[in-house]
Amino acid sequence: MIYQDKEKYSDILENSINYLENRGFENIKADAVGYDTPKSYSKVGSNINITPDIVAEKEGRKHYFDLSLKSEMPKLLKSKWLFLNTLSALKSHRFRIITTRGHFQFTNSMLEDINLTNKSLIKI
User: Fold this and answer.
1) Kind and range of the H or E element at 42?
2) Are the CB atoms for 100 and 94 separated by under 8 Å?
3) Position 3 pLDDT exceeds 80
4) Which of 18, 37, 61, 105 is paired with 52 by a 20 to 30 Å CA distance?
């Protein structure tokens, strides 16, 4: 999810964090109240910052999670996913996308546009 949608979808972020805690993830960092903020990455030459929605560990491996919710800026969301996918591949981490009912079609079309159709979605 992009920064402009954080307040609008804060309840879905909390549900996602609870889902991950119940699945055994530890050291959860999220851009939400009561959690540490994950590390941000900034694009050189612009004021764009990329922050994963949730970062957690399970069995010694770091996982990046991003919420896929309908957005008015799909290009920014696509570039965020491509960056997080590349970053996780470089560092042998995992990158997963979390989506909810009503956002499946949007998510699948976005993944097809950026050629990440091999990603399995976490459906909450």
Assistant:
1) strand 41-42
2) no
3) no
4) 105
Question: 28-34: long-range contacts (C-beta < 8 A, 24 or more apart)?
Answer: 28/54, 28/55, 28/56, 29/54, 29/55, 29/56, 30/54, 30/55, 31/6
Q: 37 and 51 in contact (C-beta within 8 Å)? A: yes
Q: Crossing angle of helices 74-90/104-113, nearest 10°?
A: 70
Tally of structural domains, the chain = 1
Q: Are 124 and 19 in contact (CB under 8 A)?
A: yes
**What range does the domain containing 31 cover?**
3-72+80-123
**Which CATH number goes with the domain that contains 27?**
3.40.1350
Helix H or strand E encompassing 80: helix 74-90
- The 10s digit of each residue's pLDDT in 62-119 is 999 999 998 888 998 999 999 999 999 999 999 999 999 999 999 999 999 999 888 8
Mean per-residue pLDDT over the chain, rounded? 91
The two structure tokens encoding residue 39: 């590390």
